């Protein structure tokens, strides 16, 4: 009996789900004259071939007539496989001598069908690229099994003719376990940060982890931090030895659009991207981008994850090498500029939908040629909030990219939609960094109104982190710059806004008397220029301050006004926050029945916006109300929900 599978590798982790699906498919198969086909697909280096071998070894007793193996890349010339040669290799394994092999594809196919009919074989087909390469190699027996490994899905394989088993890169946990099995080394315990860097570098690819293990064994005296830097430089410069040729071959098989998109993908800000983002990068319309993405996925050069796609670090380095060798700086700069302007435009559109018309400094960005706009679901504010959260890393990355490109106006302008996002999703560290870059860009752009706005926004980030002196310093500079502005409506709004920010800082420091004075001053200034939104915001803030000062009657009056005004202006976030503040006042006035529906409304609004910080805050206050009403079970449920959100947020921040 022929058996063409090598001995198993010393270490293997994960893939339990894929193996279970494969074994279940084998046990349930009731084919007549068509073999069962297991189609493994995944990036180069994910371990498809080793899993195929493992399946063949485990299942060999079910298929006593032999295990055949053909690697199509060994037979590939200029990207194409001569199927006749592949059939010849399989027939040779079935004891047909070369002199008895038929010459034509048709006749050789008939020989193969005759030799495989009624037999119980495993045929392992490695490195397939299309179904046209696979179908002629399937044995002519329903009692046989074909295991096909390809870098991307074989979309042209007839639907239902194969059990698809896509392989994602290993999780960090499984990758760490594989690395520990490959090299038992105390440095894996002693240097956890370096180990984390090593895992990120290896991108969950078993092939890369084996290279990392070899380096660790070879350099046992070097600290892992040093080894990581050296390995990073080696892999970035030269690539992963065992799959570099595979990736090069896949790249060479792409058409011009797909090859260009692959070279440009490393420019995209953020860790993952959507089809719309890819279209903005390519700049040739959505259809061209969709076709290019399909080609890249089929070639195994992308890692699709639902609606978003990512390029693992090692493939990113490969794409950058291809860009250096095959692209030019002009195409890269044009693409990066296009992406920044596209993200700015989409961010501004989302900001307007999510927050409504408000004080902004940047002019609306125009359409970007070749880069269609995003459709925000059903066009609800909550859809825009969800888009901002989904694209937050890309938006923050666009700020840094814009500054590197010298697009100073675009850089600080991105800070405005990021402000709307921050109010419901306070990711402090990245927001502080982006607002700091926006301030630098506004200084280089010599744009005082932008400086006022960005410094005020950064001040809030500081005080929410308890950095009150830093916040005060930013507001002092913002106020000094605002004093130099003119008497136009926008400039007067900006000056009043700084006073409102100062009042909020006073409140955070517990000086509610000064806070109330600032809110009243800002409210008068907005009323003088007939700025309805500014008056609304001042009314809400002043109501909060008076509640903190114990002036509950006046606070109730103002918060009722603020909520009604927010609903009239369709300001969902302010309406919800005014409802929350009003509920707190009513509790203190011993009117819990009136407070309860306000908490319900605030909770529903927070959930609709995906504002988990607000949701947790409302849940805790609502739990306190339940306790006051003797509803201990309900209070415990509400607090547990708040704790789950806070735990999730903590894990995400970590």
From TrEMBL:
SUPFAM superfamilies: P-loop containing nucleoside triphosphate hydrolases, TPR-like. InterPro entries: P-loop_NTPase, TPR-like_helical_dom_sf. This is AAA+ ATPase domain-containing protein. It comes from Streptomyces mimosae.
